[in-house]
Amino acid sequence: MSSAAGIFVHRLALCESDEVGAGTQIWAFVHVMQGAVIGRDCNIGDHAFIETGARIGDRVTLKNQAMVWDGVEIGDDVFVGPGVSFTNDVFARSRRLPLPAVADRYRAKAGWLVRTCVGNGASLGARCVILPGAHIGAYAMVAAGAVVTREVPAHALVAGMPAKRVGWVCRCGARLVQEQARIWHCRCGEIFEEHAAEGCTSLARSC
Amino acid sequence: MSSAAGIFVHRLALCESDEVGAGTQIWAFVHVMQGAVIGRDCNIGDHAFIETGARIGDRVTLKNQAMVWDGVEIGDDVFVGPGVSFTNDVFARSRRLPLPAVADRYRAKAGWLVRTCVGNGASLGARCVILPGAHIGAYAMVAAGAVVTREVPAHALVAGMPAKRVGWVCRCGARLVQEQARIWHCRCGEIFEEHAAEGCTSLARSC
Amino acid sequence: MSSAAGIFVHRLALCESDEVGAGTQIWAFVHVMQGAVIGRDCNIGDHAFIETGARIGDRVTLKNQAMVWDGVEIGDDVFVGPGVSFTNDVFARSRRLPLPAVADRYRAKAGWLVRTCVGNGASLGARCVILPGAHIGAYAMVAAGAVVTREVPAHALVAGMPAKRVGWVCRCGARLVQEQARIWHCRCGEIFEEHAAEGCTSLARSC
């Protein structure tokens, strides 16, 4: 175990980044590449991988074997379940495939890298996969094994392949119950209001 | 490579438990946490992770990258395929999310930990995910990539997301063939009888 | 980091094979077993595992956590996404399960090992699973999270569980557009012709 500026790095982990916040713990067999940014008070589980160019907020739990690539930005207080995989290339080919169209595509990041954001407080279930550009709204919850192919609204609970919305969840993680038209309640006391605009349904906390 | 009481631990593995049975082999980049219990004559593949509080029986094959968490109990002679992930928290949030409802929930194990059992001789296919409390019956078989969301009866073959029963399998692993109403045969010679009770169908070996 | 004959092996990787081609890079926490064959100019990402008996061609990108088993043969220029798992045993049981039928089955490779081939230039998306014998045609593309249960024709784009064909892709990776009956065009300029025979549809480049 080593410790620099209040960071814990397990003796069998490889942390090459010097942009890790205080209070963060990095466990065995993890590889954090140079230039990856990790906030404060995070917990990075065994065998996780965080690539150069990835950005992770504060108080994030990143469970074992999660893979976070260049172009992925994770907000604060996010739960990334075991084995979650992000992606950043919509139609990947081996970069060394000897074809001019492939060489052109991979010559610059602009040609292939698609960014993905995860909003504050969201949860990504075990072994789910997030396709490039499928942004995850704040406090949304992705069910285990789901394959997320497009944007997920804040507070949505999505499941399946491709992932579809099957409910709403509270900030605390509990499923919301509909009390009357467009009003959703949580057992923790929070109340949310449903809005529909441009064919999309969204949820926001009632003030 | 080290060896204590007939246990093989690869020189690149990390085994912190002193409750591993004789004859068990632990391969490279595996992490077995302190307090995890593993029986005799098991085979634990590369990059697997076994958490404090997990219990694994005798003669279990745990393939590479399988993750076994606190609250998971695996019987004897079980096959856990590559990349299988268990889970133990139904509506996970990052534990450090600054909300009273989240803090309350994670204060004690009783608030979030859901246990899962795997019966003797069962097989879990590659990269399947077992949701919290989705107990797997003895000699059941979960297809590769399946997401198991509820209990699986003994000898059932389940597949899909969510996993549904698509057949029955023998103790030896082969698929059973229906010979007459409620009677199923295996090519290895075993015969099983189907029972229905309380809306559930189950299978038991004929005596 | 070590280097033999132009091979790069990260200091935290374990490469036991002496059949790795020049120009290949093997990154942290990878395990390449003795006897595994890897071609030239490949890139093997962190935490990947390549078993004795596996064969990998030239210029292959094998992303992190991919698992390649005995019996799997990967062509040249293939992209194997993060967390992809192959399989080689159709109805796996723990090998030490004390039943004569299981002992018989695992006594020799002929009793259980099913081979799988991946054609040149194919791409396998993140966390997809390839079932035993589900050969992947040249330049085919498997979507992220898909579970491939049977053969995939050359240039097919398949998705879902079980994976089904949802389109065609070019050698360069882009999706093909149908210009007229049986003729498909790529934006990179290539033209393909569709053929149907024995109930199967396939695609080939127009000369």
Tell me what the CATH architecture of chain A is: 3 Solenoid
Class based on secondary structure composition and strand pairing of chain A:
mainly beta
How much of the sequence lies in strands of chain A comes to 25-35%
* Strand order of the biggest β-sheet of chain A: 1-2-4-7-10-13-16-18-20-21
Write a brief caption for the model.
In chain A, 4% of the residues lie in helices and 34% in strands. Chain A has 207 residues and is mainly β. Chain A has a ten-stranded mixed β-sheet, with no helix packed on it. A four-stranded parallel β-sheet of chain A has the order 3-5-8-11, with no helix packed on it. In chain A, strands 6-9-12-15 form a four-stranded parallel β-sheet, with no helix packed on it.
Main features:
1 helix; ten-stranded mixed β-sheet; homotrimer; UDP N-Acetylglucosamine Acyltransferase, domain 1; 207 residues; mainly beta
Please give a structural write-up.
The structure is a homotrimer of 207-residue chains. With 207 residues, chain A is mainly β. Chain A has one helix at 100-107; strands at 2-4, 7-9, 14-15, 25-26, 31-32, 37-38, 43-44, 49-50, 55-56, 61-62, 67-68, 72-74, 79-80, 85-86, 116-118, 123-124, 129-130, 141-142, 147-148, 156-159, 164-168, 177-180, 183-185, 191-197, 200-205. Chain A has a ten-stranded mixed beta sheet, with no helix packed on it. In chain A, a hairpin with a 2-residue loop joins strand 1 and strand 2. The radius of gyration of chain A is 18 Å and the shape is globular. Chains in contact: A-B, A-C, B-C.
